[in-house]
């Protein structure tokens, strides 16, 4: 009997593997293809709460007092399915919060606790995050109770704060306002390794020189938050570990005192887990089968006892009273000699040579049993490195000072990626303004904008001067950690005024004019900078035959040097700006990849990036006045000529040297224009070409001008958190 017509015998009736296998992706088939996904990774279609939901409004309705009472009760409500150490979940919750926040790095502002990303792969399954799936599941009843008025991102950090409070620490404060994402952050580069905990040599030019770790990375190995607790590549050497700790924490903008305080305060409570066979554990959450329901690292030998847990492989508590925030860490580390030993799981750890039985912590399950405390290689680094040791001695001599330094460092760690203080919500937001929050004073908003525009018009600055200055001021914004931007006019201050990409000599001349206008008008320089750019765009549109009113919202303020942590602003320096067709030097990645990185940090979509590039070329706003990509004989007018001529098949294109191309007339061979890769990518990449074709059409000029103004306004106002209720 033959097969029924229309059927294929034995063939799966669904698109088998097509939606899940990476091997079927365009990038897999064509590895050099430009992947634009990062520009649309958090599209509203993924958000189950809908476009009209506002978390900022919802969280204002939260009963914070009741929530904190519930969290305090949770800390000591040990549950059979995951028993708490000494009947207290504080250590587990602190580690969860710490590891959520600790992924932040200052180089690109990515990572951190601000999005609830710990719920998703790969972070939910990193080796260093072992058993934090249990912490998150312990919090589920509370999240369920308070619903959309409480984000997971806020709950993770608040749980850590409450844990510390329940164990005796007076915290510095807490802010709500972190909004959840709904799928992993694909834009974050965690390293090139293909294996968890691969030797750290792979991310260093020289592993003996920690400062040579690849940027923007901060963790020393794939799957770790900071450093390997057993030592460099698992080899104990406290002084070598100290240098890795120093670089890692510096890449979070932490100094030695903050680093020492965080290490001590983090290890004053809780314990490490390695009382068993690490090889017996099941797969991580992302690799576990469906019956595990999101759990990972199944321990077949735990026997319902907290003391049988296995996570890092190191086993033991640091202090005699692991559920109390006290000075016991100093007593243990500094008053005893320590020697290397092995945990039951085989991990390297340090244990005291001689300690009285009564000074040892009791077993996490059975209080009749005592065990040696332990120290990791990073703890021993605090004792043996001269700078860290000086911090510990100072802390020990003044417990109140230590608690204050730690509370502030913990607040910084858990709030750094939230950005400026206007984004903070809730009753526990500290009154004090902190320099790492990039404070900006309120600016004047009730003034005659047209009068200021008239002064700018009379000043004689070129369109390019005005547009370039406004763009350079605003382009520093990073949606990753909400830093940078035009508000504050920090382009006037060190280090920004001296950045190569800001053309310091040209910038100084423009700022001299703007500062005088600001003084005469009693408005901020920040407003004048943006207003000047807007006015230039309106002039350019008028020259192209279109009336345009670029939206402007006054009220920016001017920061001062005293309000600016210059060192932490250094990583915001652009090394390339496709929008002004500039690149500081050649890099491993292609210029168009650097363009995507900047566009994503600015919060731009692919079509917004496209229209801005085309408009900036037509305006002649390239760095240093270079003519690459200026495909027009009407430079300075806001036209769609860039797209018209890019897509004109009367032209041919050929490379002449690295990142430089010629556009010639197909019939005569006459040289018409030059271009870079970031110009030609809009004609070669199929997706970007589709956008370019929209703006090249005969009916597109008005749409082009409106879309350009809208995208420009978005960048100019990206940092206006003072306007958000």
Helices and strands in order, then pairings?
Elements lengths: L25 H4 L25 H5 L4 H12 L14 H12 L30 H7 L1 H7 L5 H15 L71 H13 L5 H12 L3 E2 L43 E2 L10 H7 L3 E5 L5 E5 L24 H8 L1 H12 L1 H17 L33 H10 L4 H12 L29 H18 L3 H19 L22 H4 L6 E2 L4 E2 L7 H11 L4 H14 L21 H6 L4 E7 L2 E6 L5 E5 L1 H8 L1 H11 L4 H16 L9
Antiparallel strand pairs: 1-2, 3-4, 5-6, 7-8, 8-9
Helix pairs in contact: 3-7, 4-7, 8-11, 9-12, 9-13, 11-12, 12-13, 14-16, 14-17, 15-17, 16-17, 17-24, 20-23, 20-24, 22-23
Helical/strand content category = mainly alpha
> How are the strands ordered across the major sheet?
7-8-9
Rg, nearest Å? 28 Å
Mean pLDDT: 95
State the share of residues found in helices, binned by percent: 25-40%
Beta-strand proportion: under 5%
Q: N- to C-terminal separation?
A: 72 Å
Report the total helices.
Answer: 24
In the predicted model, the low-confidence regions spanning at least 5 consecutive residues are 1-8, 16-20
Shape: elongated
Number of strand elements? 9
Largest sheet properties: 3 strands, antiparallel
Q: Overview of this structure, please?
A:
This protein has 725 residues and is mainly alpha-helical. The chain is built from 24 helices and 9 strands. Helix 9 packs across helix 12, helix 9 packs across helix 13 and helix 20 packs across helix 24. The protein is elongated.
